[in-house]
Amino acid sequence: MRAMSERSAEMDAQDARADVDPYGAILIHNVPERPDIAAVFAKICSFTEEDNTRYAEAHDRLRRMIDSELSQHISDEGERLCDVLIGVLTELRDRQLSLNDFDAVDERRRRIRSALISFTAALQIHEYQTVGLSELRWI
Questions:
Q1: Are 27 and 45 in contact (CB under 8 A)?
Q2: How far lies 42's CA from each of 14, 18, 47, 132, in Å?
Q3: CB of 95 closer than 8 Å to CB of 54
Q4: Which residue from 7, 81, 97, 118 has the fewest beta carbons nearer than 10 Å?
Q5: What integer is the mean pLDDT of 72-91?
Q6: Taking a C-beta distance cutoff of 8 angstroms, is the pair 51, 74 a contact?
Q7: Is-contact 105 116, C-beta < 8 A?
């Protein structure tokens, strides 16, 4: 009970400090010596409200710019995958590719696999970039 009341008092004091100085940059890190704590939040500097607004707007512009580039990359790789699939299906339809020619079928399979790997890699890069940016927060 005593530990809970001390922890509650500590959290109330932190809330009071945050109310007085609400803007700033925080560092989120792990403490290897304390595996029971998932993350530690440490305020590393204070900002004015104007600084906070400026940094938040810059972060949003950066996020939109990266999202746009990543979306274009995904679109390009998706088009490449579709082009490869359409090419192989067209060759099959027009009987330019015999299913008995194992070397030719193997070559088409490699082209499809390569395009698919490129497309899924683009999706993975997008996930890493967007998750990484969404974890960056200004307070």
A1: no
A2: 11, 12, 14, 19
A3: no
A4: 7
A5: 95
A6: no
A7: no
For the chain, the straight-line distance linking the first and the last C-alpha, in angstroms and rounded, comes to: 32
Angle (CA) 45-50-51 rounded to 5° is: 35
Q: 67, 95 in Cβ contact below 8 A?
A: no
Return mean pLDDT, the chain. Answer: 86
| Reported confidence tier of residue 135, pLDDT bands at 50, 70, 90 | low
CA–CA separation, 21 vs 49, rounded Å? 10
Q: 21-36 pLDDT, tens per residue?
A: 888 888 888 888 877 8
Return the CA Rg of the chain.
26
Residue 67's Cβ-count burial label (10 Å; 0-12, 13-18, 19+) is middle
